[in-house]
Amino acid sequence: MLRLGYPVIGVTDLTRAVDFWTRALPLVDTGEWASDTWRTLHHADGSGRALGLMVSASPAEPRPRLHLDLFTESEDEQRAETERLVGLGARVVDWDYPADPDFVVLADPDDNVFCVVDLSRAPSGGGPAQ
To answer: FRET partner for 74 with CA separation of 20 to 30 A, picked from 2, 8, 36, 104?
Structure first.
């Protein structure tokens, strides 16, 4: 039976990517399936696999159709987490935002874009979900 696994991010510097994502989120590198071109990151609480990192020669897409959303519970938490992630090596991306967005677009050190979403204002620009 086919089942969904987990997202995989293409990176150019595997060591830097492991460092960023394990500091950005509560993830750990367990060494499972580790190679020169692959790392599997697990949830730090032991609940299983969370994210794959794979060396890729292709450049990051500036507007990928698929990306990660990282959730926060408030605007203050979103602001604090965005600042923390920038301190870890992410950068804020110039984006064409809707009016009053609930998300901030960042890029990891490999230029893969992801969003930090304030769930108290989701969905994007429309207020709390009904």
So the answer is: 8
Q: What is the pLDDT of residues 72-113, one digit of tens each?
A: 999 999 999 999 999 999 999 999 999 889 999 999 999 999
What average pLDDT does the chain have? 94
* Sequence-distant contacts of 20-28: CB under 8 A, at least 24 apart: 20/88, 20/89, 20/90, 20/108, 20/109, 21/51, 21/53, 21/108, 23/88, 24/70, 24/85, 24/88, 24/90, 24/108, 25/50, 25/51, 25/70, 27/51
Q: How far is CA 87 from CA 7, 33, 105, 110, 122, in A?
A: 24, 29, 15, 15, 25
What is the length of the chain? Answer: 130
- One-letter amino acid at 108 equals D
Question: What pTM value is reported for the model?
Answer: 0.91
Give the position of tokens 């429309």.
126
Residues near 126 by beta carbon (within 8 Å), at least 6 away in sequence: none
Selection from 120, 114, 125 nearest residue 92 by Cα: 114
